[in-house]
């Protein structure tokens, strides 16, 4: 499914739906009969970005596979809030084993399907940033390196939210978490060297890697659908704000995600076999402060105007914009 | 029990967990009043007819439009479109070209001969309408649709009122005017021309009318005392414009001076140019900011070579056509004051465009009327002090435009209908205004306005061809789709998509959405991400 060039209509493809498009050109989420893979009644917080991102992604994968999909889940918020025994919110075959082994379990499920001659059944593994960038990282790298036929989706909310907002290797610099308190001379998380798992995935030269955001549904659905057309190891990294952990308003979840993209802090791109093949340009560039101000985890940057460290965060965004060409007009669509 | 090891319960669904109980405030769908609708003097439901036009269903759009205004092709040419001034899109790029889409719909209706549906039942009541101008025609149309028998009596030789005798052809071609009037009359409305009502009560009595709507307009030119030589050529704007409708066009000469600052003054100056005048000069006593004429008309007139002398009054006119003009200055209150500086201006004729008065002679014997400042006072239901006699248009206190007149006609018709049934018309409660701040403008694509092509300058200055040409189908569609649908759901599916709890139920095309309060946690993302501000958060009662 390529991006549609929509005849001008008020909102183009910015909104979820568009009543003037042909049925098959509309988003999965606009469909009255979408799977709703992650059903109502789950116990995620108000305005949970991860719950939203998971439904967006898995519904899209369900459409691409005509419903022949098995999901493997790492431990984390998504697992805990969706399956308190004996209830489940999942309307698809779903398995959970441990925090760190989702990629390995998914490799096994894919192998089992192949052995049983059910190769039409596809496998998705999913986890949060903790289960992906820290605890499950070894299994994930192995899955990449063996090129197992699994789509691994990471829902990145930038800390261990389930256990009470502890720092992960995806927590951004200066962010306050329970383990990086806003105290001392350099409050919040350290300005480390960073750990960019999409780029690490690319270094494995796997067939497909993409980043996506809950703020750009059409882009997200297109990337998931594209991933499902490819065999082998694939990785999609989705930015999902966490109102509780970030200290943002539940109503602002999509707004916050949008500002992360528009500021350049969360670049949207895709890569095939280790080479970047596409980027989603920034539509209206904003300074990083627009993004940071909405979140209490960065409040200490503004309580005593911490210009130098705000400038360092702006520099990260500017570097992303230059590196990924986020202000360039796209060559396609 | 044949369950797997260590399993004692069947798999249940999370649907058992009614997360709606977490909520402290709930989203509700609302309709807000779009600023265009709010600003429309004719009370058109603009957002609603644009919604149909966006989908390319022009007939549905035209039918919604004509529920309020039976003259869209005329409106699309002569309305000063306060809707566009109010349009929220103006804060994004440029306001939606509502007026040009309206004109497209009106022209489409004429081209494809769409008709009004006649009323299914007759009420048995007879209503007299005096004056076949925009107000009288609109009232007749609405009264007829409400089932009443309507007779229009018009003093002039043709219907249309000021639309025919005050607005030049280059702004409103007469075939358009004739066609839209005829379509109203085709509903079964009787029109009597060349008949002046001299006594309204007598006419109502002899015709057995149950009620009357008066809309005689303002056709008497106001005069100013200007000492003038006996052979000086001084005319009034109304007779010049009316003369344009007859066989013998008015003789204005090569140099024409028009005195006044309203739209009529501009119409006369532009008409003079088209009749061959080399100089058409408007003399106005105040400044451009204070000029009552509309900006785009001033702009078009200046482009056509009309000159305007600001801050000037005419003191006298000598026989050989020499005008003495005094320079003015504005005082602290903004009123022009004489400066004692004079200059002269050579002219062949002077046209006075100083406003119009109403001929109220038909009301001479009617008791209980209140007449102030030369116009009839009416209550909020458009009824005069005399029961059963209603009035509207230029003869009551208001801004004197075609659109206001049409609005009066509609409003009066509704009240007359209620009055005939022995009740009072209660308008539905107005929704809250859809302010720009209630929108999420991120979702609207950037698209500046499609401007209507303007007739080539050289050509329009010498002919009476229509100056502003219409949009074609694709540009009209584009323009309609620029509408933000302020305050009214246009089914973009955003709320349905962005809810992390699947608590929005999509009811299907045209049926909008519903909240599932069993599961809505009240996060408010739907409210924040609704492009058009059609969802509101209200506190839960505990």
Topology:
The complex is a heterodimer of chains A (333) and B (542).
Chain A: H1 49-64, E1 69-73, H2 77-82, E2 87-88, E3 94-96, H3 102-115, E4 122-128, H4 129-134, H5 137-146, E5 151-156, H6 197-203, E6 208-213, H7 217-228, E7 234-239, H8 243-246, H9 253-263, E8 269-272, E9 275-279, H10 288-292, H11 300-303, H12 307-324
Parallel strand pairs in A: 1-3, 1-4, 4-5, 5-7, 6-7
Antiparallel strand pairs in A: 6-8, 8-9
Helix pairs in contact in A: 1-7, 3-5
Chain B: E1 12-13, E2 25-29, H1 35-39, H2 46-54, H3 58-66, H4 72-78, H5 82-86, H6 98-111, E3 126-130, H7 134-145, E4 149-153, H8 162-165, H9 174-185, E5 190-192, H10 200-206, E6 211-214, E7 220-221, E8 234-236, H11 237-243, E9 255-259, H12 263-274, E10 279-283, H13 295-303, E11 307-309, E12 312-317, E13 322-330, E14 336-346, E15 349-352, E16 356-357, E17 371-372, E18 375-376, E19 389-391, H14 402-420, H15 457-462, H16 473-480, H17 494-498, E20 504-506, E21 513-515, H18 525-529, E22 535-539
Parallel strand pairs in B: 3-4, 3-6, 4-5, 6-19, 8-15, 9-10, 9-15, 10-11
Antiparallel strand pairs in B: 2-22, 7-16, 12-13, 13-14, 17-18, 20-21
Question: What does this molecule look like?
Answer:
The complex is a heterodimer of chains A (333) and B (542). Chain A starts with 48 loop residues before the first helix and ends in a 9-residue tail after the last helix. Chain A has one domain: Thiamin diphosphate (ThDP)-binding fold, Pyr/PP domains (Rossmann fold). In chain A, helix 1 crosses helix 7 and helix 3 runs parallel beside helix 5 (137-146). Residues 1-6 of chain A have low confidence and may be disordered. Chain A is built from twelve helices and nine strands. By secondary structure, chain A is of the alpha/beta class. Chain A has helices spanning 49-64, 77-82, 102-115, 129-134, 137-146, 197-203, 217-228, 243-246, 253-263, 288-292, 300-303, 307-324; strands at 69-73, 87-88, 94-96, 122-128, 151-156, 208-213, 234-239, 269-272, 275-279. Chain B has 542 residues and is of the alpha/beta class. Chain B has helices at residues 35-39, 46-54, 58-66, 72-78, 82-86, 98-111, 134-145, 162-165, 174-185, 200-206, 237-243, 263-274, 295-303, 402-420, 457-462, 473-480, 494-498, 525-529; strands at residues 12-13, 25-29, 126-130, 149-153, 190-192, 211-214, 220-221, 234-236, 255-259, 279-283, 307-309, 312-317, 322-330, 336-346, 349-352, 356-357, 371-372, 375-376, 389-391, 504-506, 513-515, 535-539. The mean pLDDT of chain B is 93. Strand 2 of chain A pairs parallel with strand 1 of chain B, so a sheet runs across the interface.
């Amino acid at each position: 499914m390529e991006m549609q060039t929509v005849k001008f209509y008020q909102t183009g493809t910015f909104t979820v739906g568009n009543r003037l498009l042909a049925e098959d050109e509309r988003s999965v989420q606009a469909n009255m009969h979408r799977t709703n893979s992650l059903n109502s009644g789950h116990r995620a917080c108000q305005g949970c970005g991860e719950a939203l991102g998971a439904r967006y992604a898995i519904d899209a994968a369900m459409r691409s596979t005509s419903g022949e999909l098995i999901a493997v889940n790492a431990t984390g918020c998504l697992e805990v809030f969706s399956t308190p025994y004996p209830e489940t919110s999942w309307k698809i075959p779903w398995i959970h084993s441990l925090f760190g082994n989702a990629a390995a379990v998914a490799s096994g499920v894919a192998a089992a399907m192949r052995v049983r001659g059910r190769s039409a059944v596809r496998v998705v593994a999913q986890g949060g940033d903790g289960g992906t960038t820290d605890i499950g990282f070894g299994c994930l790298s192995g899955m990449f390196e063996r090129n197992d036929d699994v789509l691994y989706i990471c829902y990145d909310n930038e800390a261990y939210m389930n256990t009470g907002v502890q720092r992960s290797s995806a927590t951004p610099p200066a962010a306050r978490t329970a383990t990086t308190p806003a105290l001392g001379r350099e409050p919040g998380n350290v300005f480390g060297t960073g750990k960019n798992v999409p780029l690490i995935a690319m270094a494995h030269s796997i067939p497909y890697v993409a980043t996506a955001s809950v703020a750009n549904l059409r882009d997200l659905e297109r990337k998931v659908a594209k991933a499902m057309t490819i065999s082998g190891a694939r990785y999609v990294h989705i930015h999902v704000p966490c109102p509780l952990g970030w200290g943002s308003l539940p109503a602002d979840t999509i707004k916050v995600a949008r500002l992360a993209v528009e500021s350049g802090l969360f670049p949207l791109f895709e890569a095939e076999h280790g080479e970047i093949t596409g980027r989603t340009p920034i539509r209206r560039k904003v300074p990083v402060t627009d993004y940071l101000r909405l979140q209490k985890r960065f409040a200490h940057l503004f309580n005593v105007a911490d210009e130098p460290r705000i400038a360092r965060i702006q520099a990260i965004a500017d570097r992303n914009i230059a590196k990924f060409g986020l202000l360039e007009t796209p060559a396609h669509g | 029990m044949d369950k797997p090891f260590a399993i004692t319960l069947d798999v249940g669904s999370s649907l058992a967990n009614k997360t709606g109980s977490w909520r402290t405030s709930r989203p509700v769908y609302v309709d807000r009043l779009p600023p265009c609708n709010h600003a429309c003097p004719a009370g058109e439901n603009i957002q609603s007819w644009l919604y149909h036009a966006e989908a390319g269903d022009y007939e549905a759009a035209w039918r919604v439009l004509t529920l309020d205004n039976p003259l869209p092709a005329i409106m699309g040419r002569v309305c000063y479109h306060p809707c566009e001034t109010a349009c929220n899109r103006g804060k994004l790029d440029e306001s939606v070209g509502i007026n040009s889409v309206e004109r497209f719909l009106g022209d489409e209706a004429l081209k494809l001969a769409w008709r009004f549906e006649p009323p299914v039942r007759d009420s048995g009541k007879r209503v007299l309408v005096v004056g076949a101008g925009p107000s009288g025609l609109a009232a007749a149309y609405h009264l007829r649709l409400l089932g009443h028998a309507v007779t229009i009596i018009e003093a002039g030789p043709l219907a249309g009122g000021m639309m025919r005798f005050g607005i030049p052809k280059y702004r409103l071609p007469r075939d358009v005017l004739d066609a839209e009037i005829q379509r109203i009359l085709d509903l079964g409305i009787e029109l009597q021309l060349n008949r002046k009502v001299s006594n309204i009560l007598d006419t109502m009595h002899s015709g057995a009318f149950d009620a009357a709507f008066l809309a005689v307009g303002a056709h008497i030119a106001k005069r100013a005392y200007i000492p003038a030589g006996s052979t000086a050529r001084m005319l009034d704007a109304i007779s010049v414009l009316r003369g344009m409708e007859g066989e013998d066009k008015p003789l204005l000469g090569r140099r024409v001076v028009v005195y006044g600052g309203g739209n009529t003054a501009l119409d006369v100056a532009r008409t003079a140019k088209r009749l061959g005048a080399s100089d058409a000069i408007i003399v106005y006593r105040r400044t451009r900011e204070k000029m009552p004429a509309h900006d785009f008309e001033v702009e078009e007139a200046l482009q056509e070579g009309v000159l305007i002398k600001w801050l000037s009054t005419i003191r006298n006119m000598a026989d050989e056509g020499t005008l003495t003009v005094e320079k003015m200055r504005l005082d602290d209150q903004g009123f022009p004051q004489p400066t004692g500086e004079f200059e002269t201006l050579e002219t062949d004729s002077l046209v006075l465009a100083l406003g119009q008065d109403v001929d109220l002679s038909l009301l001479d014997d009617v008791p209980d009327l209140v007449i102030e400042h030369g116009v009839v006072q009416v209550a909020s239901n458009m009824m005069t002090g005399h029961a059963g006699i209603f009035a509207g248009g230029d003869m009551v206190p208001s801004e004197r435009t075609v659109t206001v007149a049409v609005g009066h006609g509609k409003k009066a018709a509704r009240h007359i209908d209620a009055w005939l049934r022995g009740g009072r018309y209660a308008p539905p409660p107005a929704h809250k205004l859809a302010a720009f701040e209630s929108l999420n403008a991120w979702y609207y694509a950037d698209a500046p306005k499609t401007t209507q092509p303007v007739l080539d300058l050289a050509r329009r200055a010498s002919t009476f061809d229509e100056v502003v040409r219409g949009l074609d189908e694709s540009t009209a569609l584009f323009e309609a789709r620029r509408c933000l649908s302020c305050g009214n759901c246009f089914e973009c599916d955003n709320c349905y998509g962005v809810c992390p709890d699947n608590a929005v139920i999509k009811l299907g095309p045209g049926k909008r959405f519903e909240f599932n309060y069993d599961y809505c946690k009240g996060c408010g993302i739907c409210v924040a991400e609704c492009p058009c501000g059609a969802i509101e958060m209200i506190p839960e009662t505990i």
